[in-house]
């Protein structure tokens, strides 16, 4: 039995039932123990499973996470049972890369100012507009999403420097460095954008020293996970004008507390963790799930797309 | 003598004097008759010359316009004397295409709403975000600027339909139609963006019938000249929700009057004719002017870049 811990859109559900007429599907909005005990496959957004659930799910053979982050999963318990986990990494790449490009262009061409003038009926043309053309971006995490950001940036004639654990070549990156070499490339960066997951290695990876090394005009963007940088370190970088501006879609505490100083900093843009949102999200998740389910039922367990390494966390 | 009717940035002036040590340059902020009478070449932004000036400029052989539009020039008087005119078309393409992409992405990913939530310290994730990916854009005027917009849109997997007088193939356009075929492609368009110049043919080219033919979700953008569409026709299209939204950088009357209803329409974005602005504007103009001046002095008059056809107006 295939157990969904959420209730998908009717048209997507119908399509699934039609595509797999011999499967038993249970669609639930909560995690029920009776159903759980029978579940061979669990499909979840990755935020609702506990260690106790894993213990109850005696027949569980595969977990499909319809999101990218697995940091809220009982990963130790899952790994101990040797249950494979797949996610939908890659499906965020289109909306996220579009969002990142939007915020970059808005920064370079003074869009907040244009909107403010409009509110006041002011025809003022003294905006500080700069071209994105010819600038340099450091991309922390040049995987599926980071690569898509890089691909779009190359179209705008931006030099791309990727940064990850290994420093090995990655698509759409003109150059690659390892995490421990980050400081050496920051002085050249006009834009530093992170799409890194939350792992032991990425936690507080960005330090005050990194912000010190950046141009005072640089744009810092966090679109991965809030754990990348301590909130106070970010606030200090912005208030001391170590950098020009920041746009964050993720924060150490979410929702961002209503009294956080970040809301009102003039050089800070707060986005409420929406950059991966898209009307095509579930549609794309199902487009990954369906062929995976076929492979699974044919016994080709090794060939599933998007296995997650529970020890690495992505 | 080469007569500038404006005073360029010191570093650009110095570079010019160094590059052409045998030329006499006059840099003025106004048009003075004594200087004018001696001028062989006039360099102007194209908004300060009158018929009387042309009559006074007895030695005038070439006018270089450091802008794209020539609608404020005494074109009949210039044509009667057979004086060639060149402009700097193409140098707007980078900032304008970046601006257009910015506004498109802001529309698709609800950026105005994100900024409003931030002002109120509201962590709301119920934004209506759509992907640009897979949409269709009609580009009115697929020349240097329109082609650059098309090139960037192709990177976002957008289908591009160009529209101009001839309907002949143009770069980065998946399909081309003539002006008189515009209505036939509008029902397919998610975005309609114009970068057309102001000519007899483009004046009020967009009619109420065109807006009727568009999707009620379509985004209309005018980044060419305000004469393309009557203000009332645009207001009607927006208030009657014939289209989803509009972003205009140009208007029939500029500055846009403080009491224009356009300022406050919720589905309208007013940009104060700034999309071509760039800190690299004059730098790029000079990069066109210098080789042109060399060709001119070598007698290769026919080989100048960017001749303007005064009868066509661009």
How does this structure look, described?
Two copies of one chain form a homodimer. By secondary structure, the first copy, chain A, is of the alpha/beta class. Chain A has two domains: 2-90 and 279-303, NAD(P)-binding Rossmann-like Domain (Rossmann fold, 3-Layer(aba) Sandwich), CATH 3.40.50; 93-270, 3-Layer(aba) Sandwich (Rossmann fold). Chain A has helices spanning 10-19, 33-38, 51-56, 75-81, 93-108, 111-119, 144-155, 182-185, 208-213, 231-239, 281-297, and strands at 2-4, 25-27, 41-44, 62-65, 85-86, 136-140, 159-164, 175-178, 191-194, 219-222, 245-248, 268-270. Chain A has a seven-stranded parallel β-sheet with strand order 8-7-6-9-10-11-12, covered by helices on one side. A five-stranded parallel β-sheet of chain A has the order 2-1-3-4-5, with no helix packed on it. In chain A, β4, α4 (75-81) and β5 (85-86) form a beta-alpha-beta unit. The mean pLDDT of chain A is 95. At the A-B interface, α5, α6 and α7 of A face α5, α6 and α7 of B. Chains A, B: Keywords: NAD, Oxidoreductase. Chains A, B: It holds the Pfam family 2-Hacid_dh_C. Chains A, B: It comes from Candidatus Kurthia intestinigallinarum.
Architecture blueprint of SSEs:
Two copies of one chain form a homodimer.
Chain A: E1 2-4, H1 10-19, E2 25-27, H2 33-38, E3 41-44, H3 51-56, E4 62-65, H4 75-81, E5 85-86, H5 93-108, H6 111-119, E6 136-140, H7 144-155, E7 159-164, E8 175-178, H8 182-185, E9 191-194, H9 208-213, E10 219-222, H10 231-239, E11 245-248, E12 268-270, H11 281-297
Helix pairs in contact in A: 5-7
């Amino acid at each position: 039995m295939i157990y969904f811990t959420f209730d998908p859109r009717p048209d997507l559900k119908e399509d699934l039932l039609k595509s797999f007429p011999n499967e038993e599907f249970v669609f639930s909005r909560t995690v029920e123990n009776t159903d759980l005990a029978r579940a061979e496959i669990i499909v979840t957004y990755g935020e609702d499973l506990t260690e106790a659930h894993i213990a109850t799910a005696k027949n569980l053979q595969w977990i499909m996470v319809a999101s990218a982050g697995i940091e809220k999963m009982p990963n130790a318990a899952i790994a101990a049972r040797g249950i494979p986990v797949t996610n939908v990494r890659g499906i965020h790449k289109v909306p996220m890369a579009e969002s990142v490009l939007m915020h970059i262009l808005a920064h370079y061409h003074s869009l907040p100012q244009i909107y403010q003038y409009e509110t006041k009926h002011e025809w003022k043309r003294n905006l500080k507009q700069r071209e994105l053309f010819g600038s340099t971006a450091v991309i922390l995490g040049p995987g599926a999403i980071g690569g898509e950001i890089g691909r779009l940036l190359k179209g705008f004639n931006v030099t791309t420097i990727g940064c990850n654990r290994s420093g090995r070549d990655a698509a759409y990156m003109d150059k690659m460095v390892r995490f421990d070499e980050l400081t050496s490339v920051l002085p050249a960066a006009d834009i530093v954008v992170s799409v890194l997951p939350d792992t032991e290695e990425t936690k507080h990876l960005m330090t005050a020293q990194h912000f010190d090394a950046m141009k005072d005009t640089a744009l810092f963007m966090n679109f991965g996970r809030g754990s990348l940088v301590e909130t106070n370190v970010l606030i200090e970088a912005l208030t001391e004008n170590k950098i020009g501006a920041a746009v964050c879609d993720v924060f150490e505490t979410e929702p961002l507390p209503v009294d956080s100083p970040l809301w009102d900093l003039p050089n800070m843009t707060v986005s409420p963790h929406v950059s991966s949102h898209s009307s095509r999200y579930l549609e794309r998740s199902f487009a990954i799930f369906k062929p995976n389910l076929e492979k699974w039922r044919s016994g080709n367990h090794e060939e599933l797309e998007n296995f997650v390494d529970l020890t690495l966390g992505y």
